[in-house]
Amino acid sequence: MDTMYTELSLAAAGFVLGIFLMAVYDVLRLFRFLVSHTPLWTGLEDVVYWLFSGISCFALLSVKNGGEVRIYIIASVLIGMLLWDKTFSRILPALLKKVKKYFRMKKR
Predict the structure, then answer these.
(1) Secondary structure class of 11 (helix, strand, coil)
(2) Which of 19, 76, 83, 102 has its CA 20 to 30 A from that of 55?
(3) Do the beta carbons of residue 17 and residue 83 sit within 8 Å?
(4) Residue 14 in contact with residue 80, Cβ under 8 Å?
(5) Average pLDDT over the chain, rounded to whole?
(6) pLDDT given at position 81
(7) 77 is in which domain, residue-wise?
């Protein structure tokens, strides 16, 4: 029973990490929306983001699971990312357009 609890807590931690990583990426998207970027800077930001994501996943596997790679942990990270992307990330572009329109109206 203890092993099952450990595995469920690892899956939950992976799920939360996936949600967190996509939320961080949405903040990056917001920054890109507000500040214009060249393709070079966009690429560099993406590299830094994916390095951060990889290190975060590695840290989860190292600290919580003794460095053992378990497919269900990776799957739970991906499921968390997909869930965030298919729900909250869909709201962001519409919200950004409203904010941009609001600030344009305030300027006039």
Answers:
(1) helix
(2) 83
(3) no
(4) yes
(5) 88
(6) 96
(7) 2-107
- Residue 81, token pair as written in the block: 């990312």
Cβ neighbours around 60 below 10 Å, total: 19
Q: What is the DSSP letter of 50?
A: H
Over pLDDT 70: what percentage of the chain?
Answer: 95
Q: What are phi and psi of 77, to 5 degrees?
A: -65, -45
For the chain, what is the radius of gyration of the CA atoms?
18
State both tokens at 59.
């840290």
Q: Which residue has the tokens 């939320």?
A: 23
The whole-angstrom separation of Cα 108 and Cα 68 is 58
Instruction: Name which of 11, 21, 7 is nearest 82 in CA terms.
Output: 21
**Total domains present in the chain:** 1
